[in-house]
Fold BAH domain-containing protein.
Amino acid sequence: MQDEMLSYQWKEDTRISDRIELEQSKKLIAGYKPEFRCYRSLMLMNEAKKVLNLISIGDGVVIACGESKQDFYLAQVSSLYDTGESDGEMFATVIWYFKKEEIPKTKLPRRTFNNEVFLCTANAENVVDVETIINKCAIVYSESPVPINGESEESVSTYFYRKIFNGIKVSNYKPKAENKTSRRKTNGQQERASAKLDKNQTKKADPVITKTPLKSTENTKE
């Protein structure tokens, strides 16, 4: 299959203006400036401008980090924004997940699955150029293995996690219990987006993990 150049565009009418929702995005963006614009969704398109994927906050994504199809990172989008200019750069903040190939074999559990990933709780650069995003995926928490692919050809690959890796050791992931009585009520859309992100908020550990996606000019889809 020939390489296909991707183009990127914010989905119309998804710029965030709701005060509470905007404040949540601001907290995730280091060095936020008033002219920055935050969004809910990003369209990945081919050269003919056909939309291949719609990436929204909370979605899993595949991020290019090498020249071959097997060279990629996995992450979950926590915010989407640009610098405010008409031709300004477009960015995403992400939560990283390690594939088992990225973890030393001596640190891995005795039994792992091909589509099992590990939530990164080490310090890591979490801002990526959106042009390093080459596909969408699903990343779910599950104590039991889940199928990697959906039932249809259009379905995205599914990865599951049940453990974390802090750069030193692998340990069990403990989902946060939801406090229904104290949870602040917001509109339905913002509440669903928050639920996706709250599930994966973790404390940072000391080790620093370096993720190096491709530069935007190197990005192609195989």
Notes: The longest strand covers residues 72-82. Residues 179-208, 215-222 have pLDDT under 50 and may be disordered. The helical segments are 19-28, 188-198. Residues 109 and 170 are 8 Å apart (CA to CA).
